[in-house]
């Protein structure tokens, strides 16, 4: 994977972040979702380098081999604001003052928080398979609750999810069926497997969800109340073989109140589009970026 890329561990304000980067040109940072690591981009990142971009992939804090800070009662160390600070710190360390941010799933929450909190740094934003956290919670109905029940399970303060998942992480995360080596690619699968087998990583991934229902929700509400919007051009992408259209109808319309300028379309894929249909995803990213 990632021929010609550099893999290193960067210290960002005392937080260790695993980073892989390569290429020259306009900078773009790729942010993975749950329960992946940065290696989910293995088929996308080299194509973007070939297209003339400087590409940065990182493990979000708590995920993969990035640092795992001790949490608090508010789950603030796993807020998207804290993770956005990591993104900006990594890009500064690599010499990229202005950059595009592409995020999938949980990574998309970090991506749009980076654009909201650091508008002077983010030139373009791509959000994949998501709507803002506050929108998801306010629009939650029976269909969402049935399909996305894990949000509420993961968020329980008593932490039963850690016990359940860590008892058999490979079955929980479909490591040999839906998320098999054939589906993910063998090296990407090995990195995914190492992550889900680590109880500390599982705990931190769940803290990400707990932050989503608490501090992240409050931050979104504060931004909306203050009239803050994403200032850079934004592209919303969604997997047409996932449930975004069934849950939200016009996904772009959900994003429109949050963005000064937004467009979007579906990609013929299941949820993890960087692995399922990387070529179509790259075409969409190249055209927008």
Brief characterization of the structure:
This is Alpha/beta hydrolase. One of its GO terms (molecular function) is hydrolase activity. With 289 residues, the protein is α/β, with parallel strands linked by helices.
Can you put this structure into words, describing what you see?
- The protein has 289 residues and is α/β, with parallel strands linked by helices.
- It has one domain (6-139, 215-288): 3-Layer(aba) Sandwich (Rossmann fold), CATH 3.40.50.1820.
- The protein has 16 helices and 8 strands.
- The chain has helices at residues 45-50, 80-93, 106-117, 133-138, 142-147, 150-154, 160-167, 169-172, 181-184, 186-196, 199-212, 215-226, 244-248, 251-255, 273-276, 278-288, and strands spanning 6-12, 15-22, 27-31, 54-58, 99-104, 122-128, 234-239, 262-267.
- It has an 8-stranded mixed beta sheet, sandwiched between helices.
- Helix 2 packs across helix 3.
- The radius of gyration is 17 Å and the shape is globular.
- GO terms for molecular function: hydrolase activity.
- Keywords: Hydrolase.
- Residues 26-154 form the AB hydrolase-1 domain.
- This is Alpha/beta hydrolase.
Integer tally of domains: 1
- Per CATH, the superfamily is Alpha/Beta hydrolase fold, catalytic domain
Order of helices and strands: EEEHEHEHEHHHHHHHHHEHHEHH
Q: Roughly what is the average pLDDT, rounded to an integer?
A: 97
Oligomer: single chain
The appropriate CATH architecture is: 3-Layer(aba) Sandwich
Number of beta strands? 8
Structural class: alpha/beta
Global outline: globular
Question: Residue share in helices?
Answer: 40-55%
